[in-house]
Amino acid sequence: MPDVVPLGSNAAAGGAERSDLRIGQRIRAIRTDQGLTLDETSRRSGVSKSALSKIENDRASPTFEVLERIAAGLGVALVNLFSEQSTGHIGRLTSTPAGGGRRTEDRNYIHEFLCTGLKDRRMVPFVTTVKARSAHQFEKPASHKGEEFLYVLSGAVAFVSGSYAEIRLTAGDSLYFDSRLDHLCYTTDGADATLLWVWCETG
């Protein structure tokens, strides 16, 4: 699987990808605040200089695993890449009005990240629209550190994870799992599904 997917690509079942979240801008701001060059960040993270440049300029969508490597290379918590500002806001409360989340979209999911105003959070809550209709649409499952909880708001999905049996979920069903397990979701009724998804960084 490539480290990045070009934004605006029309891969099968995908359509154009877009992002309001601007993770790339935050990565650049954190990097420059630390006085690091692209070459230095590439060496620290193991992500190629060309891939980093595309990510920082919002011309490519990084996988979750790549974001982990970049965060480690920058010496920051991964959740800080999902903050509203690169410098973040250290506080105790933040809110998001309906429809006011920060969106990122790829060929299989639309994620709307919620309550992004705080720095050094442990949890990343988001509402996900599942577009994928089959596990075959994924180049490979996700796998990364942390723990995750999901709750089906509408629609029907299948949760696929490694050697575990496929789990079918419908509105009102929920699931909690170790993020290190290979995992993906696709819809089972031919229509998009909506999930409340929460990822918590651990370790």
From TrEMBL:
InterPro entries per record: Cro/C1-type_HTH, Cupin_2, Lambda_DNA-bd_dom_sf, RmlC-like_jellyroll, RmlC_Cupin_sf, TransReg_Diox_bact_type
Keywords from the UniProt entry: DNA-binding
Entry's Gene Ontology cellular component terms: cytosol
- A Pfam family annotated for this chain is HTH_3
Domain called HTH cro/C1-type: residue spans: 27-81
User: MF terms per GO, please?
Assistant: DNA binding; DNA-binding transcription factor activity
Q: What is this protein called?
A: Helix-turn-helix domain-containing protein
